Amino acid sequence: MSKRKLSRQQAWRVEKIHKERAERARRRDVAAEQALEGGALGPEREGLVVAHFGTQVEVEAAPGTRRRCHLRANLEALVTGDRVIWCDGDPTGVVVAQSPRDSQLCRPDPYGKLKPVAANIDRIFVVIAPLPEPHANLIDRYLVAAEVSGIEPVLVLNKTDLLAGDEALRRDIGALLAIYPQLGYRVLEVSSREGGLAPLLAALREHTSVFVGQSGVGKSSLVNALLPGADLRVGALSELTAKGTHTTTTAQLFHLPSGGSLIDSPGIREFGLWHMDRDQVEWGFREFRQHLGQCRFRDCRHQREPGCAILAAAERGDISDQRLDSYRRIVGSLEDGR
Ligand SMILES: Nc1nc2c(ncn2[C@@H]2O[C@H](COP(=O)(O)OP(=O)(O)OP(=O)(O)O)[C@@H](O)[C@H]2O)c(=O)[nH]1
Ligand SMILES: [Zn+2]
Q1: Domain limits at 287?
Q2: Cα–Cα dist 74/93, whole Å
Q3: Domain count of the fold of the chain
Q4: Of ligand 1's atoms, which has the minimum distance to the CA of residue 193?
Q5: 111 and 90, same structural domain?
Q6: Fewest Cβ atoms closer than 10 Å to its Cβ: which of 52, 203, 213, 251?
Q7: Which residues have a beta carbon within 5 Å of ligand 2, which is an ion?
Q8: How far is the CA of 186 from the centre of ligand 1 (A)?
Q9: ipTM for the whole complex
Q10: Per-run averaged pLDDT (10 residues), the chain, 338 residues
């Protein structure tokens, strides 16, 4: 973001936006407090935030029943996936409390400050495909981001139909992916086109998941295949937005007919491509962890330094060349500011 001074015109607009925002927040608090004081609210019950619209959230008490809710003034911003205590009311309910989060997926706001975008996700499916050609350093970048978030990543090789009859391609992909099960990461093979989704369905069950991965690997195709109401899903979204004036690109939670929930949004799909620090990258390579802090130099970059514990581990074959190369590329791209 440009640091140059704002023109008077721009400064005026920024101030106007801030004022409007404050006014909206105030109205929201008033609406919630009025509803609470009005006594017309139902009993407190548990719910799940399944969508977010401006200052309101959509809360689900039981699958299929959704209510718009205001937030009680003392609540921090809620995100999709948050578990809450809420009371029904007319015309909206009120969220009165937020349960602690097991995990949160954060992304930097335009000022670089990390903001949660979804909560209580426990699986990140990193989707790859024979086409577009997968690169180890990109796969590893997703894995590192998942490690840093403390959420279990699972690799999904989609479009396996493209491997049928192409032995060379199968061999190349096999060689690229061979390291991951050795590191303890699961690799599932599916095809959203040829109906081979069984391993994915099983891995989604009883979890709240997101799909991430490069453009074109088939994330939308997978979501559509998993949610037979995908058209319905698009329809449901526009129906919701038609009711209010708020359109949204924030995360939505969907229940899968085969079990489990999926949280999806354009922002979440960019997960892993956000900025990370070198320390995070180092730590995110899980097989590096036991060697960290053992290099001769405290600020060792594990490039060519003498007494480097990571290089020694690579030398012994405890760290693969593929992963070491990935690490260097990722750190290199951070240093280039890319
Ligand atoms: N052969 C084959 N093609 C597939 C499969 N799944 C998706 N595709 C194709 O891959 C292309 C990209 O699929 P999308 O679902 O749009 O990919 P995406 O990851 O959502 O892409 P973005 O929206 O750009 O992030 C489309 O032409 C799909 O038809 C599959 O299992 N096999
Ligand atoms: Zn080192």
Answers
A1: 278-335
A2: 16
A3: 3
A4: 31
A5: no
A6: 203
A7: 295, 300, 302, 308, 310
A8: 22
A9: 0.97
A10: 57 72 67 63 91 88 86 86 92 91 88 88 97 95 95 97 94 97 97 90 97 92 82 43 48 92 88 85 96 95 94 96 96 74
